[in-house]
Design goal:
Order of helices and strands: HEEEHH
CATH architecture: 2-Layer Sandwich
CATH topology: Ybab, Chain: A
Strand order of the largest sheet: 1-2-3
Number of helices: 3
Number of strands: 3
CATH superfamily: Nucleoid-associated protein YbaB-like domain
Structural class: mainly alpha
Helix content: 40-55%
Radius of gyration: 28 Å
Oligomer: single chain
Length: about 150
């Protein structure tokens, strides 16, 4: 074998190795892209539900924590407006926390597999609960509607 033939054979061998390596990288890239797309799609379809302790209030939220369904029993409707509002807020916040944890878990799995470096920015976890809200005495005139009737 001449030097030119030897060099041509080496080049062909190296070209084949590089082509195989490129195909592997391309295949991994496509797999990662599909995994990221399917995770993103699954994350946007996440819903979560929470119920009050007495099961009188049930809230369902979407992946962003927005309430998509709210169910109230007759027992809930018998509560004072302030108590009902506090229960609804608490249940909705609990459901939003569950949705957030679910979405977070999907992306942590990808991060652990080395598919992503940073987790996406998710809505912050709710800090105060309704029971921790400061009570303001006489903050509402009960003789007036809760809606603004004044001119805009």
């Amino acid at each position: 074998m001449t030097d030119q033939q030897h060099t041509a054979a080496e080049l062909a061998q190296r070209a084949t190795a590089i082509t195989e390596q490129a195909e592997q990288i391309y295949s991994r890239t496509l797999t990662r892209k599909e995994t990221l797309r399917s995770t993103r799609d699954a994350a946007t379809r996440v819903t979560a539900e929470a119920k009050s302790g007495d099961r009188s209030v049930r809230a369902t939220v979407d992946a962003g924590g927005m309430v998509t369904e709210l169910a109230l029993t007759h027992q809930a409707l018998a509560m004072s407006p302030d108590d009902l509002a506090a229960v609804i807020i608490g249940v909705a916040q609990e459901a939003a926390g569950k949705a957030r944890e679910s979405v977070y878990g999907m992306y942590v799995a990808l991060q652990n597999e080395g598919m992503i470096r940073e987790l996406p920015v998710l809505p912050p976890a709710v800090k105060p609960t309704p029971s921790e809200r400061p009570v303001v005495e006489n903050d509402r005139d009960e003789s007036r509607s809760g809606f603004m009737v004044d001119e805009w």
